[in-house]
Design a protein that fits this description.
Elements (H helix, E strand, L loop, with lengths): L1 E2 L4 E2 L4 E2 L3 E2 L2 H9 L4 E5 L4 E4 L1 H7 L18 H4 L2 H14 L3 E5 L9 E9 L5 E10 L7 H6 L3 E3 L9 H10 L5 H8 L3 H15 L4 H11 L26
Antiparallel strand pairs: 1-4, 2-3, 5-6, 5-9, 7-8, 7-10, 8-9
Helix pairs in contact: 6-8, 7-8
InterPro entries: PAS-like_dom_sf, PAS_4, Sig_transdc_resp-reg_C-effctor, Tscrpt_reg_LuxR_C, WH-like_DNA-bd_sf
Pfam families: GerE, PAS_4
Protein name: Transcriptional regulator
């Protein structure tokens, strides 16, 4: 099965590579219970399995295939089309996978992990994006996080600027928590948290919380969920679940 995109890359004036989907791939994805989808380089869907149709809450694949996110009559895509395209562009430009935790209570009753990967043809050209979604069971979210989490969380750090410990403390600081509150969550001393925060501010080149938030938004750190909060596909933010750092 071959699906051809007729658009042209304006930056190079070259036709966008064709997206060729082997029948064996389609047959396999059709049998998988998790939602799977494939897009071309313009973020237009060229494939959707039945599980993705169900996730989007539309009638059939025809409501997805051949369309952009903003053209699909789904609450999930209607409110998040711009962000989804931004993610697609990141995968295409970086030629690497992107893992996000999607929280969209107005469209889907449960959080789900989405992994998007570059889709290559036989000539090793990136011709699109392939991605899948997997349900996530949530144990608890603390009150701070409930009110201010972005719709999409990433599960791999944007870069190597901060250590994982610094990211853990940064995560709670961005929710407006004090050093004392953070220390109680992470079962460490307030001084330890303050020392880490000082290093975070220095690395970011800022000297106030407002500037730190702006820095994190620009770098996508406001969407990074540190690994320690993920345990057996559950998010743990409870004080009683803390470990020493």
């Amino acid at each position: 099965m071959r699906i051809t995109t007729m658009a042209t890359d304006e930056t190079t004036a070259k036709p966008i590579p064709e997206v060729e989907l082997p029948r064996s791939l389609i047959f396999t994805l059709d049998k998988i219970p998790e939602p799977w989808g494939i897009k071309d380089l313009e973020s237009r869907f060229v494939y959707a399995n039945s599980a993705l149709v169900k996730l989007f809450n539309v009638k059939s694949r025809a409501d997805i295939v051949g369309k952009f996110d903003h053209e699909i009559a789904s609450k999930l895509t209607a409110d998040n089309a711009v962000e989804f395209v931004r993610q697609d562009n990141q995968v295409i430009s970086m030629k690497r996978d992107l893992i996000t935790l999607e929280l969209h209570p107005n469209a889907v009753d449960y959080p789900h992990i989405v992994r998007k990967l570059p889709f290559f043809n036989e000539d090793e050209e990136c011709v699109g994006i392939i991605g899948y979604s997997k349900n996530l069971e949530v144990c608890s979210l603390n009150d701070y996080v409930k009110g201010s989490m972005p719709g999409s969380l990433i599960l791999n750090p944007p870069d190597d600027l901060f250590s994982e410990r610094e990211c853990e403390i940064l995560f709670f600081r961005l929710q407006g928590m004090s050093a004392k509150d953070i220390s109680e969550r992470l079962c460490c001393s307030t001084r330890t948290v303050e020392n880490h925060l000082q290093i975070v501010y220095q690395k970011a080149g800022v000297n106030c919380l407002a500037s730190l938030k702006e820095f994190c938004i620009n770098k996508d750190y406001h969407r990074y969920l540190p690994k320690r909060f993920m345990t057996k596909l559950r998010i743990n933010f409870d004080k009683k679940e803390c470990q020493s750092i």
